Amino acid sequence: MSSIPFTKLLAVAALAAQFSRPVPAQSTLVYIGAYTRPRSKGISVCRFDPSSGQLTPLSLAADTSNPTFLAVHPNRKFLYAANENPDGAVSAFAIDPSTGQLKLLNRVSSRGSGPCHVAVDQAGRWLYAANYNSGSVAAFPIRADGALGDAAGFAQHAGSSVNPQRQRGPHAHSANLAPDGRFLLAADLGLDQILVYRIDPEKGSIVPHDPPFARLAPGSGPRHMAFSQDGRFAYVLGEMLATVTAFRYDAAGGRLEEIETVPISPADYAGPKSGAEIAVHPNGRFLYASNRGDSTIALFRMDAAKGTLTAVERTPSGGKTPRNFAIDPTGGWLFAANQDSGNVVLFRIDPGSGRLSASGKTLDVASPVCVVFAKP
Fold first, then answer.
1. What pTM did the predictor assign?
2. What is the distance between the alpha carbons of residues 255 and 267, in angstroms, rounded to a whole number?
């Protein structure tokens, strides 16, 4: 039997130590949602120390079907998941702060098919969900114990757009709350629209606003949104054209006014386009967007006065098909969830330039599609 070279043993030991060193008990919990295919059973969890970048090994936090988008309650005691199935559901879990394990509180119908996005309001009273397959949004009351009530508000989208394969009907892709909590802005890939709803914090009703929507370029396929830190600007990721559209946001009137649209791929890029995720850095100076087509994450510098974007760089995501990425609350790290290569790759973020650099740390997760943080 051949022996293993000592240098290889050292390398293996160093890699193991990277994940096995103790991480402070009050570090951040990292939850990863995934498609539950043969190698994945639901939501995974690990602990992360942002001061050092140390990670504990992953463990299964909850066995639940296709938790493709997650949201954490503002009190960080509860976590919610969109169960992206034909008979759509949303699930509520209680977070065990000592272990990170999730206890199922209840599961309710999402009032549609294929829920793909959930969001909790700042007061922690309502959960909003977007149903992709059936093209609708719904509002669910959050009880004192974190469990969900049946949908109290509901809106069904209608219409189509220019792409006959993907836009024959509505496909609500995200339910986004305005910074002041007065409006719900639903990005609908099938309609090329951001539908704007007035929401009632007492009754949970969802009522079309006037004007009821803002248009994007035909064939854009709006997917996700992000607001500037001051709430004056909104940015919409177009999945099908791999673009970011910047809007001026009138908070008083709930109106969006387009400023510009920029590509997230190079001008000479001729490959497939598939924008996936968008996020503004906690310092409000940088915006990131992922393109599944070439497996990159684009960095833009934000103009605080004008809301315009300037491309800075595009960084390979460290895997294939970056379906989602998330910036940790300190702003020091970006976790890129690469769905088709089955890994979540950690990048350091330079605080001055926003640029990404590989940390050398990777989590192996089958079909990862969402990352969220919960500091106990």
1. 0.93
2. 31
